[in-house]
């Protein structure tokens, strides 16, 4: 349902002398679309008036018909000029028989009082329907609560019946699980203890082996050290004894050595060597002069001295150990 524009007051009966001016002002305040709709509405009202008054006032109907055709022609020309192919105003239905025709304002919209009455009727109808819907909702809620309560009782009964069997099964399963867990725990503890004991035995055996090797190495080291110390001590004692013997021999040689005969022997050897050198020199000279080798004439007796002159030199006495050998 459309109402008049808020910028314009609802139409009221105007005096005849001011009606045209007020209609023109109202027309100017409306938009192009409302103007087109009003022109179409006026054309329909004129057509209905022409059909109603044709039997009583022929001349007025003829003038109204001419006025309607003229106004319709102007409306058609304006629509053609603006490019409108057809009127966008909805076609109003004809009033039914016995139906009260609504009074409209000059612009084609229903009056404010009728709009208020229609809105009040719609509001009362909505309130009635709301009360009916509220009653139905309350009844449905009560029925739902009743059925929900019955369903809860049935659920509790079924759960109570089955929960006893389930609890018994759970107790049996828990007992079996506890026994199995206890056995598994005992086996696991035994296995762990055996494994640890085996590791301990292996470590002890390895440690014994390692320490046995260490003991043997230590014994070898101690024996070697002891042997070396004993040898060093023996060598030291032997060296001290040898030093003492050497010192005794030196002193004995100094005391008992025939120094005079030794000096005489050295002098005789030196004289012998000089004479031999002279003989050799004379022999070479003779051979040089004669050109022939000289034969030795003297027969030398077997001498205690070595023939080599270097070996005839006095040799120091050997050490005591060499003499013992």
SSE map:
Elements: H1 16-29, H2 32-53, H3 58-82, H4 112-256, H5 259-290, H6 309-312, H7 320-324
Helix pairs in contact: 2-3
Pfam families: Collagen
Region (Disordered): 1-122, 210-325
Keywords: Coiled coil
Q: DSSP helix count? A: 7
Shape: elongated
- Indicate the radius of gyration in whole angstroms: 82 Å
Strand content: under 5%
What composes the largest sheet?
Answer: none
Number of strands: 0
Binned, the helix content reads over 70%
Give me the secondary-structure category.
mainly alpha
So what's the oligomer here?
single chain
CA-CA gap between termini: 162 Å
Q: Overall mean pLDDT score? A: 73
Query: How would you spell out the order of helices and strands?
Result: HHHHHHH
Coiled coil: 123-157
InterPro entries: Collagen
Biased composition (Pro residues): 316-325
Keywords: Coiled coil
Describe this structure in words.
This is Ncm protein. Residues 316-325 have a biased composition (Pro residues). 76% of the residues lie in helices and 0% in strands. With 325 residues, it is an all-alpha fold. It has a domain at 1-86. The longest helix is centred in the middle third of the chain and has 145 residues, at 112-256. Mean pLDDT is 73; it is low at 1-18, 55-65, 81-92 and 319-325.
């Amino acid at each position: 349902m459309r109402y008049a524009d808020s910028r314009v007051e609802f139409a009221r009966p105007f005096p005849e002398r001011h009606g045209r001016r007020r209609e023109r002002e109202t027309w100017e305040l409306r938009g192009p679309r409302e103007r087109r709709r009003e022109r179409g509405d006026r054309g329909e009202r004129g057509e209905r008036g022409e059909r109603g008054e044709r039997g009583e006032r022929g001349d007025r109907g003829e003038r109204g018909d001419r006025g309607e055709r003229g106004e319709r022609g102007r409306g058609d020309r304006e629509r053609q000029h603006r490019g409108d192919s057809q009127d966008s105003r909805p076609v109003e239905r004809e009033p039914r028989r016995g139906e009260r025709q609504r009074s409209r304002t000059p612009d084609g919209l229903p009056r404010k009082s009728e709009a208020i009455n229609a809105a009040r009727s719609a509001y009362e109808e909505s309130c009635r329907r709301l009360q009916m819907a509220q009653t139905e909702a309350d009844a449905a809620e009560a029925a739902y609560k009743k059925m929900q309560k019955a369903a809860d009782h049935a659920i509790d009964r079924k759960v109570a019946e089955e929960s006893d069997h389930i609890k018994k099964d759970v107790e049996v399963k828990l007992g079996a699980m506890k026994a199995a867990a206890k056995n598994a725990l005992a086996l696991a503890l035994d296995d762990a203890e055996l494994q640890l004991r085996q590791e301990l035995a292996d470590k002890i055996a390895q440690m014994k082996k390692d320490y046995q090797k260490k003991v043997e190495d230590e014994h070898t080291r101690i024996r070697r050290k002891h042997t070396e110390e004993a040898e060093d001590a023996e060598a030291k004692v032997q060296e001290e004894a040898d030093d003492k013997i050497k010192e005794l021999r030196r002193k004995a040689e100094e005391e008992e050595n025939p120094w005079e005969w030794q000096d005489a022997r050295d002098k005789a050897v030196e004289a012998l060597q000089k004479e031999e050198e002279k003989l050799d020199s004379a022999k070479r000279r003779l051979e040089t002069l004669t050109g022939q080798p000289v034969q030795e004439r003297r027969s030398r007796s077997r001498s205690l001295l070595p023939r080599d002159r270097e070996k005839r030199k006095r040799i120091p006495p050997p050490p005591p150990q060499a003499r013992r050998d």
